[in-house]
Amino acid sequence: MKKIIYGLVVLVLALGLGGCAGKVKRMDVAPAGKSIEAPQSGKSKVVFMRPSGMGYAVQSSVFEIKNNEPSMVGIVAAKTKVAYELEPGEHLFMVVGESADFMSATLEADKIYYALVTPRMGWWKARFSLKPVHKGEWDSDEFKSWLDDCQLVELSKETEAWAKENRASIQSKYDKYYNAWMKKEASEKPTLSPEDGHN
Questions:
Q1: On the CB side of 49, how many CA atoms lie within 13 Å of its CA?
Q2: Which tens digit of pLDDT belongs to each residue from 67-93?
Q3: Edge-to-edge strand list for the sheet holding 89-96
Q4: 3 state SS for 153-187
Q5: pTM as predicted
Q6: Any bridge partners for residue 76, and if so which?
Q7: Residue 187 burial (CB < 10 Å; 0-12/13-18/19+)?
Q8: Which residues, at least 6 apart from 57, have a Cβ–Cβ distance to it below 8 Å?
Q9: Inter-helix orientation angle 157-165/167-182, to 10°
């Protein structure tokens, strides 16, 4: 019975809050009309966007894992997106909410890639996963609406300060959940492949 009630609560929240935008905290809103530019020559760019309004009251933070340590990419509220420029090659990203989840990526130079920050209900607050946008999905009306509906946000001094203040908690999420993720089958691990990017 408890499972049925919990399922109904989750369904009601998903339906009722699906269109809600989250309040942008600790990030700067990009100037009106600013678009996502191509990466600098020789670089790659990944755009993380959260088109769903589910769990809108909870911020999701995205990191790149470098030498087993999380490095801030951005805080992605509901209905926002953040563009992250980096070197081409192999990378690992982590998204944090109540728990942590991961996505690997092999990126080519001079290409833009996209990934969705997807919420799901946890026990106390929203949990999040990263879902790669694969080649062929860019031309869909759904993808175009996601891109248009999500407001571009950028790192600020407040973002860096928050990451520094919460470094221990963020690191503990990586330490707790990474080993479990590594034990998954390859087919269960979301991955951005070189061909998923476009010029």
A1: 19
A2: 999 999 999 999 999 999 999 999 999
A3: 69-76, 60-66, 89-96, 100-107, 191-192
A4: EECCHHHHHHHHHCHHHHHHHHHHHHHHHHCCCHH
A5: 0.85
A6: 60
A7: exposed
A8: 22
A9: 70
19 pLDDT tier (thresholds 50, 70, 90):
very low
Cα 71 to the center of its chain, rounded Å: 14
pLDDT digits (tens, 9 = 90+) for 102-117: 999 999 999 999 999 9
Q: Which residue has the tokens 């001079």?
A: 110
User: What is the C-alpha radius of gyration for the chain, rounded to an integer number of angstroms?
Assistant: 16
Query: In this structure, are residues 102 and 189 in contact, taking their beta carbons and an 8 Å threshold?
Result: yes
Burial call 14-53: b when 16+ CB within 10 Å, e when fewer: beebeeeebebebbeebeeeeebeebeeeebbbbbbbbbb
**Backbone dihedral angles phi then psi of residue 8, each to the nearest 5 degrees:** -65, -40
The end-to-end CA distance of the chain, in Å, is 52
Measured distance CA(55)–CA(14) in Å, rounded? 8
pLDDT classification of 23: cutoffs 50, 70, 90: low
